[in-house]
Design a protein that fits this description.
Strand content: 5-15%
Distance between the termini: 30 Å
Structural class: alpha/beta
CATH class: Alpha Beta
CATH topology: Rossmann fold
Order of helices and strands: HEHEHHEHEHHE
Number of strands: 5
CATH architecture: 3-Layer(aba) Sandwich
Strand order of the largest sheet: 4-3-1-2-5
Number of domains: 1
Low-confidence stretches: 1-16
Number of helices: 7
CATH superfamily: Response regulator
Shape: globular
Radius of gyration: 15 Å
Helix content: 25-40%
Length: 168
């Protein structure tokens, strides 16, 4: 059986709730906080109801702000990452969010190993909403290409917001 469509739990309960999206990368200091800020801003500008958060599969940066280079690249395009702090994925994220979006295949595989038994929350790749090649969002912590990463995140965020964000 296919997993329930994102937001279905809230609608079944008669709640007019926002779509809840969690972005996940490795350390939660570059890709996922950038995607968080981009989708949050897109939704606000379009009057869409969406709750966004981000987390990492690793615990190296828990409590730290995003990478300063990610903050600077995002700021040049009008996104504010300054208030975000890294956290690690929790088991409760699988019930707290309607959709979990991984930045690459390894993140997705790690999420599948963390998934509680019987949980059907969709886990997708962010690039499922962008370029047809299904590639990963490259990690700028290693590639140093923060602008290119942001270009891809903006493209994928447009696709995701078209598919899932509902009017407020």
């Amino acid at each position: 059986m296919a997993p329930a469509a994102p937001g279905t739990r809230a609608r079944r309960q008669g709640i007019d709730a926002a779509m809840r999206v969690l972005f996940v990368c490795l350390g939660n200091i570059c890709r996922s906080p950038t995607a968080d800020a981009v989708l949050r801003k897109r939704a606000a500008e379009r009057g869409r109801s969406v709750e966004v958060d981000s987390a990492g599969t690793g615990d190296w940066h828990v409590g730290s702000p995003p990478d300063s280079r990610a903050i600077q690249a995002a700021a040049r395009r009008g996104y504010d990452l300054s208030g975000l702090r890294a956290r690690q994925v929790r088991r409760s994220d699988f019930t707290d969010f309607d959709l979990i979006v991984a930045m690459d295949g390894q993140n997705r595989a790690d999420l599948e190993t963390l998934r509680p038994p019987g949980n059907a929350t969709p886990i997708t790749l962010f690039t499922d909403y962008g370029p047809a090649d299904g590639s990963a969002v490259p990690d700028p912590y290693f590639t140093r290409d923060f602008e290119g990463c942001l270009d891809l995140i903006e493209t994928c965020a447009r696709g995701l917001s078209r598919m899932y964000a509902r009017p407020s």
